Amino acid sequence: MGVIVLLIIVSVVVAGGFLIAFLWSVKTGQMEDDYTPSVRILFDTEVKLTANRAIKKKK
Amino acid sequence: MPQHCYHCGVDCDDSILWNDKVFCCSGCKLVYQLLDENGLCQYYDLTDMPGMTAKGHFVSDKYNYLDNEAIQEQLIQFKQGDQAHVVFYLPQIHCVSCVWLLENLHKINPGIIQSQTHFEKKEIKVVYQPSLITLKELVQLLAFVGYAPVIHLGGNDWLKKKKVNKKQLFKIGIAGFCFSNIMMLSFPEYLSNNAVELGNLRVFFIYINLLLSLPVLIYSASDFFISAYTGLRQKWLNIDAPIALAIAVTFSRSVYEIVTQTGAGYLDSMSGIVFFMLIGRWFQDKSYDSFAFDRDYTSFFPLGVTVIQDGNEINKPLAELTKGERLLIKSEEMIPADSLLISNGALVDYSFVSGENAPIEVMKGALVYAGGIQKGRAIQLEVVKPVGQSYITELWNSPLLKSEKNAEKSFVHPWSQYFTIILFAIAISSGIYWSIYDTSKIMPAVTAVLIVACPCSLLLTVTFTYGNVLRWLGKSKFYCKNASVIEAIDKIDTIVFDKTGTLTNHAETQLAYDGVPLSNNEMLAIKSITKESLHPLSQLIAQYYFSKVDGVVEVNKIENFIGKGTKANCGDFEVLIGSASFLASNHVYANQQKEGSVVCLAINNQFKGLYKVNHTYRKGISTVADHLKNSGFQLHLLSGDHPTEKNNLIQILGADVTLLFEQSPEDKLNYIQQLQSQGRKVMMVGDGLNDAGALQKSNVGIAVTDQSHLFTPASDAILAGEQMSVLDELINYAKKAKLIIILIFSLSIIYNIVGMYFATSAQLSPMVAAILMPISSISIVALSALLSFLFSSTIRSKN
């Protein structure tokens, strides 16, 4: 029965991890725009690679 | 066979071809070529005909002022080394292709490092290298592909956009996490019937619950405590006071029970209710990102203007203009400051500023006012007053506008005062009852009462209902700034309308010809002549004949007399078009009664007839006026225009409506003030700068717009022009919000009564509380959504 204590602690820690992920995503501004990412999904990935290459070239 | 431009979709013939594709103009073709060269033709694959029509919109020296460093400072958000960030508002963003193209601009110009769009706000954030591309070139590129940014004097909205949302989301996240975990950890407590076997485990669960409830109390619920405290300091019992009390009592009692080991506490109910209420507040705070409700004149004025200094044309920021400077204002540009006209003549359109429908001819040496738009050819002006002191901007300094608008007090607050009184009454009477019968039950009963009868249900009802109502109104293109606008609408008893642009549609002016019938050749001649003129009335005439006769004939001689009219020879005809006095000076006398804006026509020295400019009123205005009057509203009309439309308006609105004409912006403001001093609650419906003062002063200011990206003055709500015909239904629906709240709250009182029974009889176990709380919250949310939907049928059917 004592193992429940361990289990609960672990589950709360894991849940806490998700909470931290949520708080981090809000902090970095991912929640500010909830529509445009859904539009961006429609683009070909080829475009994204080119953009990344372009950025890398600048550096 | 009618074809569509491959780029913008406009009807065209196949005169302009490229790559087997048809274009309406060379502008569209050029954009296509640019995209093709850079491998960006996916633009056309994602959406059909996604482009903006390029006809004549791209003017190359329009953005010269962006070379000025002071102006660049205002626009660039961030600059370090060779990287600059800038944010622009692009109202043309409307589809997937727009997003795609704008995020691929780096393919066209390597100076652009990255560009990211925000679809709902219609914004683009560009990171670029100033050494490779200047700000002006960037804006020119955007304008070229069809997305000309709207740049204005009023600083940039990105500075003002609130970042408060993050805190709200943090609080919700933490409250949700703690609530669900506490609930889970409380189940053993409920389901084990206080069996002693749990022993240490029970203690363990209880203390974890206590630990988890601390962030909820201290962080997530902090807003309630702060707001209650602030309210109490001002001796005002707002809705957060009983809520803060309930939370505090619940927590204290729980801690007491845990420490004395007499119970498990009510921490799950407490954290749950905090969670639901925070969601309610978030739901109510629905904001419309692509609209701006706080614009003043600076959002209308351009950033820079062309100044003539020692014979050179330089660009200067508007703020630096001084008295005596010479300005060069081109066609369709706005006059930024009160000035004297140096050129021979000008044609200024003040419709946005004063509401006058027809442009005014201005003589050399006369004063022109800021806010007018020059319609004729380029003119030179000499500044008389700096921008901040012009006639129109002075309006914002009026002492009448200083007082605070609509303090954020909800109608619920009187209710919450009664609620708190009743609550205390019940708590005290149950305390007295138990003090007689069983003193051990006093504390449990009194605290239970305070826990269960949580005014939380009132707050939940209010927030979710307002949130729903806001959204339904928004779907009908009536965008309110926030929830307090809905309450303010409920109290309105008087409505004041503006005429130009509000009751009439700016984009639709009709012409009517009244006179001797004309032959085809005569009509052709008139059409060819008026086509050449820049005068908007002439253009209207040309358009009028566009559908009646085809083609153009050559015009032999044409003389434009600014302020009077046009004299031209075309074929066999000598045509005179202009004011009656112009015709008279050429010895042709009009023999018809004329009133209002008319243009007289004479051919070969014979008077033929008049063209009357008819203002098209929006459809359904008459019905709306009738319904509003029947609902008990008092209607008024204030117009900046001349009283030519008086009879028409009496017919449309009815004889019992007060009509006032030639009202200056200040007159309108004063009129509202006058009505308010009579104790009336006024709603102003207007558009344009000339209504800005009145919109601010009124209890509810509604700005009417046909194109949302154009300037809308500071208002409480923005209404799409086409929805003016359902204004009465929209107001009715907004008023229903109060009814919905009362209905739902009455129903929730039933739960409260059940809970009260348990509470006053000191039988409130944590389990009962934990069951009641979610049932009541969820049912409130569901009922709110359902009732808002049902009542919205009146506004939905008209969509």
Features:
A: 0% strand, elongated, B: 799 residues, alpha+beta, Alpha-Beta Plaits, 6 domains, 7-stranded mixed sheet
**In terms of per-residue confidence, which ranges of chain B show pLDDT below 50 for 5 or more consecutive residues?**
none
Largest sheet of chain A: none
What do the pLDDT scores of chain B average to?
A: 83
Number of alpha- plus pi-helical segments of chain B: 26
Q: Structural class of the helix and strand makeup of chain A?
A: mainly alpha
> How many separate domains of chain B?
6
Report the strand count of chain A: 0
Strand order of the largest sheet of chain B: 18-30-29-28-19-26-27
Mean pLDDT of chain A: 80
* Count of discrete alpha- or pi-helical segments spanning 4 or more residues of chain A: 3
Main sheet of chain B, how many strands, which sense, barrel? 7 strands, mixed
The number of domains of chain A is 1
Helix content of chain A: over 70%
**Which pair of protein chains has the largest interface, and what are the residue counts?**
A-B, 29 and 31 residues
Structure in words:
The complex is a heterodimer of chains A (about 60) and B (about 800). Chain A is mainly alpha-helical and about 60 residues long. In chain A, about 75% of the residues lie in helices and about 0% in strands. Chain A has three helices and no strands. Chain A has helices spanning about 5-25, 35-40, 45-59. Chain A is elongated and about 55 Å long. The termini of chain A are far apart. Chain B has about 800 residues and is α+β, with helices and mostly antiparallel strands. Chain B folds into six domains: about 1-55; about 60-160, Alpha-Beta Plaits; about 165-285 and about 410-465 and about 735-795, no CATH class; about 320-385, Calcium-transporting ATPase, cytoplasmic transduction domain A; about 475-505 and about 615-735, Rossmann fold; about 505-615, Calcium-transporting ATPase, cytoplasmic domain N, CATH 3.40.1110. Helix content of chain B is about 45%, strand content about 20%. Chain B is built from 26 helices and 30 strands. Chain B has a seven-stranded mixed beta sheet with strand order 18-30-29-28-19-26-27, with helices on both faces. The mean pLDDT of chain B is about 85. The interface of A and B includes residues 12, 22, 36, 43 and 55 of A.
